[in-house]
Specification:
220 residues; disordered C terminus; 0% strand; 60% helix; single chain; mainly alpha
Length: 220
Amino acid sequence: MQERARTTRRSLLEAAAQLFAEQGYVGTSVNDISARSGRTSGAVYFHYASKEGIALAVVQDRFATWPQLTARYADAAVPPVQRLVALSYDIARALAEDPLTRAGARLWAERATIDAPLPDPFALWTAAATRLLAEARNAGDLARHVRPAPTARTLVRAFFGLCSLTEALEGAATVADRLTDWWQLTLPSLGAAPGIHPWDGAPAGEWAPIPVSRRKDRPS
């Protein structure tokens, strides 16, 4: 594909993602995508056969594949549980701030209204979590009763529910702190090494979680 065509295709994808995240699948038309992108409807249909095709491309681009995160959590020098915790903060941030990720999440939630099968967005998350938990178990960092595959499946589903409900009830600004609360409860049940804390490896700056012991809004 020529560079000009790639640029056009990308601009259409990003415009569609913004609209899907804001208005949902049913509330977005091809004409809306054309207007937001500054391209003609003909250009939309040249690159994507249908609105369903655009929705599928949005989900595949980020939410179902996480291409930007795969390589970052393969560093064997970092304990696997710490890598798992850090990965959760990066994914939570993407779900709160990245338009393509947010659009993918909303399209998945609205999949019954889309006349096209969407890929399972949790398969890669679960596989990555299973791998990290298996590494942790081999290193002696998990309790003996913890089985990597079913534990990873449970963690991924609980994590996604936590992020979704927290944003809906409190807003995206609180997700990092609620995620820290969740890991404070979860890490001991996994039998994680005592020196690992939820804020180890978490992002700095605005998304840095506040350790529970340092929060002023909590009763002592």
